[in-house]
């Protein structure tokens, strides 16, 4: 779906579609995910060597520092048929929310923009904008409901991903709340087995080279798509089970906190 010239009109259109999409997902008995996994006692041996062991120390001493962390973060999640909602919606929503559980989610601290990346035959309905989230409730609901398209069925492909990533260089998007003084600036792309096409890789490299954002790609249980995902990423992580996801969420939280406290961008 092409980018709309009139940002304000499309924003209103997006909000209406999000509203109806959320109602639809509720009618389909989506599980309540308010009870985020709070068990931070991670054993290094459970990570199977996927992450740097030094990043997996307890996060308990970071809480005060994390509450003052400032960052601009743009979340993009793959909601194509490669990520079936019945299997992954709750697991991957919990993973993303665990990253931010110790942070202040609002425009003054962790300022988040969000957009799912739908399958090729699904309508892209979420216009990403900063200054939208003032706590985790709406963010959690939007992420979870995005796995349930208004058409009813998820479709294959990620051809729209390149256009969504392009927003990172769109002046109208940046005007919604991007702050150059906040660090780090991160785009999170969360997927499973999808592979980006050549255009998406090209657009991602433009964003990385521009310097406004680092792109961190996370693949849950990937297959033969790792190489292509690495090409579109500043940093790439993979996880093979839910223990890996929990460990990775802690590691990412710590790295975000460190980058913010030192006034630097995210270091891979």
UniProtKB/TrEMBL annotation:
Domain (VWFA) ranges: 72-256
UniProt entry keywords in alphabetical sequence: Membrane, Transmembrane, Transmembrane helix
TM helices/strands, residue ranges: 7-23
InterPro entries in the cross-refs: VWF_A (IPR002035), vWFA_dom_sf (IPR036465)
Coiled coil: none
This protein's record includes keyword Transmembrane helix: yes
SUPFAM superfamilies cross-referenced by the UniProt entry: vWA-like
Keyword Transmembrane helix: yes
Gene3D superfamilies documented for this protein: von Willebrand factor, type A domain
Protein name: VWFA domain-containing protein
């Amino acid at each position: 779906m092409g980018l709309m010239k009139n940002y304000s009109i499309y924003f209103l259109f997006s909000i209406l579609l999000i509203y109806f999409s959320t109602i639809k997902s509720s009618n389909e008995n989506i599980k309540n995910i308010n009870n985020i996994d709070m068990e931070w006692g991670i054993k290094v041996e459970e990570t199977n060597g996927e992450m740097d062991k030094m990043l997996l120390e307890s996060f308990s001493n970071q809480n005060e520092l994390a509450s003052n962390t400032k960052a601009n973060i743009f979340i993009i999640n793959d909601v194509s048929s490669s990520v079936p909602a019945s299997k992954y919606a709750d697991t991957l929503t919990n993973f993303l929310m665990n990253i931010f559980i110790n942070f202040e989610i609002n425009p003054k601290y962790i300022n988040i923009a969000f957009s799912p990346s739908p399958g090729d035959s699904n309508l892209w309905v979420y216009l990403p904008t900063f200054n939208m989230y003032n706590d985790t409730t709406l963010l959690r609901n939007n992420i979870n409901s995005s796995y349930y398209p208004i058409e009813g069925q998820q479709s294959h492909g990620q051809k729209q991903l390149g256009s969504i990533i392009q927003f990172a260089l769109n002046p109208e998007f940046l005007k919604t709340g991007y702050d150059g003084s906040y660090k780090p600036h991160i785009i999170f792309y969360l997927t499973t087995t999808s592979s980006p096409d050549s255009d998406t890789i090209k657009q991602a490299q433009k964003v990385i080279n521009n310097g406004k954002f680092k792109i961190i790609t996370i693949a849950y249980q990937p297959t033969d798509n790792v190489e292509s995902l690495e090409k579109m990423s500043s940093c790439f992580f993979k996880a093979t089970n839910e223990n890996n996801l929990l460990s990775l969420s802690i590691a990412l939280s710590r790295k975000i906190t460190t980058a913010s406290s030192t006034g630097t961008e995210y270091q891979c």
